[in-house]
Amino acid sequence: MPLYEYSCPECHERCELLVRSASEKPACPKCGSVRLEKLLSVPAAHVGGSNLPMYDGPPGGGCGLPQCGQGGCQGMM
Ligand SMILES: [Zn+2]
């Protein structure tokens, strides 16, 4: 039986589960979610993960400078 490693997007639990068939939906042993992401067995870098902190730039669309505040300098540019 193949042993797969899964990551749970709900509680970020990582677990190894036996999956007997492709149609079998493994559930998270911690929270019971079936929305598990199958991890590749290749020890790849953690790129493309959904739990990486995203930085969308400074709030308000400003330039990022502390004196800019909430994008107040945009009108001067
Ligand atoms: Zn979970």
Structural features:
single chain, Rubrerythrin, domain 2, 77 residues, 3 strands, 0% helix, binds zinc ion, rod-shaped, mainly beta
Write the layout of secondary structure elements.
Blueprint: E1 3-7, E2 14-18, E3 37-39
Antiparallel strand pairs: 1-2, 1-3
This protein binds zinc ion.
Tell me what the structure shows:
This protein has 77 residues and is mostly beta strands. The protein has a domain at 1-41: Rubrerythrin, domain 2, CATH 2.20.28. It is built from no helices and three strands. It has strands at 3-7, 14-18, 37-39. It has a three-stranded antiparallel β-sheet with strand order 2-1-3, with no helix packed on it. A hairpin with a 6-residue loop joins β1 and β2. The protein is rod-shaped. The mean pLDDT is 76. Zinc ion binds at residues 8, 10-11, 13, 28, 30-31, 33.
